[in-house]
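Sharing in case it's useful to others searching the archive later.

Someone asked me privately for the predicted structure of RagB/SusD family nutrient uptake outer membrane protein, so I'm posting the question and my answer publicly. Question first, with the sequence:
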Amino acid sequence: MKYKIYNYLAGFFSLAIISTSCVNDADLIQLDPNNDAVDSFWKTDQDAIKGVNAAYGSLLTDGTYMRSTPLLLDLKGDDTRSNSPWDAMYNVGRFNSNASNAAIYGWAYETYYQGIYRANQVLENVSKIDMADAGLKNRIIGQAYFLRGLYLFHAVNLFKNVPLPTEIAAFYPQKTNEEGWKQVIADFKAAADLLPNSYTSVTGLDAGQKGRATKGAALGYLGKAYLFTKDFANAKTTFKQVIDLGVYSLVTNYRDNFTDTNENNSESLFEVQFSRSAGGVDLGWGGAPATGWGKTSARAITYAPRAFGWTDVQPTRTLFNEYQQEKTTANTVDPRLDATIFYNKPGGMQLYGKDFATFYAANPGDLNDLFCRKYQNSDGNYANEYDWRSGINERLLRYADVLLMYAESLNETGDTPGAYTYIKMVRDRAGLPNLAITKPGLTQATMREQIGHERFLEFPLEGHRFDDIRRWGWLQDPVKLAWLKSRDVEFNSYATGREYFPIPQLDIDNNPGTVQNPSY
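And my answer, the predicted structure tokens:
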């Protein structure tokens, strides 16, 4: 059922924007006389579904979750490192992205705004369609609000001061970061009011379809936006709403969150739907969709172990060592280590049908190195990742994240004892002892540090660590910054303001009045 979401519009709307010196926005927007899509589209329920599917389609291309966005989210954290030969990628983790070369970050920026534009098309036009199924209409509009909120979330979070398109226009002025978060929150609120808990109990064209945004996904991201803006009271209330839905639970096997064998499971609030069997075999690099495009991801080959892919991203030794700090109740190493990292494990470890120690025996550097295991097709069904076509869904928001963010919200609003309960849920799956017994009576400050540790081990290589570092203000704390430098040498090149990416120069040139982010 999830493949129905891929039927997004072929030949989406074209706008010819002609610039002169003394005109208004309405004068600038002209229809392409060779494309009558605007006149003939937005008439039926099917048109509305296709329109919102087009907005989902922007999640699948190189600028977003096919490759670029995971790199932008992962590489600045102390859980990852990069020795990529490609300078645009190598420099992300060294806080040295080039303002004159928008490779990777500029592709992401462009695609976020493509997705926003498509969502705005839905919001502007679907309300005007006479649809017999009012529930379907509300769900489509709710999904458009969610998707616009999600793309704006990334733009505001990664680029700081950005335009906030909420209607179709020729130019969009740059807004402050505070205004950006306000719009993100408004969109997720609107989405949460319109979306169902799931699509299993609805009727209509979207009945039973997996991969569509739900109330839980909208509330989860709404809570996250509150948390990122330090509105802990609203974050606490919103995360509790997600918990009280009774829809989500942690899966027994942690690794099931990162393979193609248990996708859209009970722990997943929202994930990007990739598949080897949908569409063609070409990769979706960006721009207008082509008929040959598949719906696969290049994340696996980008992060893959040496000789099985490009090895552009690797775990840090700091991450590996931190997994060793606390044994499970069975006196074993935290099982999340083996689900996250390939290494020369005593007793052996298999990758792509090979024994790690045997395969790398001739190369001591590789034998003693660390490689990514999350999101790898490495359990024996594939020899390597060199076809670039991973079908593993990207899990953007997991219930474990909600539980730990709720614990953080409790701690920040003065209920430190209450935080223990929700941390325990996540630790229990890993087999770790009850924190209330091993570390009773933590203060708000020491619990804050503990939550940092818990999140570090639960979410590495999932795009959360640097978001946490930035929102906690660690880069502005000399003691914490020195600590980060001791954990990951890439932090030695951090400069104030480089926690954000530069605004692409093309956007500055084309959007009058746009100011570049500080330090670029």
